[in-house]
Design brief:
61 residues, 2 helices, 2 domains, mainly alpha
Length: 61
């Protein structure tokens, strides 16, 4: 499955699995809806990506 079709299929299946996990597993967590939790959910992926790209940039120098 090294073809582009295989890659698209893998992404599609992982997307479906994540979608079901959020839909049916999300209510189990019962995270309160506060401004702080929303900010954490929005900013965390960007911070992680910035850290990884910064680390990769330092590795290439």
């Amino acid at each position: 499955m090294n073809s582009p079709t295989g890659f698209i299929l893998k992404v599609f299946l992982m997307s479906i699995a994540l979608s079901f996990a959020i839909k049916y597993g999300g209510p189990i967590l019962s995270i309160p809806s506060t401004n702080l939790n929303a900010s954490i959910a929005v900013l965390t992926p960007s911070i992680i990506l910035a850290a990884l790209l910064g680390w990769r940039s330092r590795q290439q120098q």
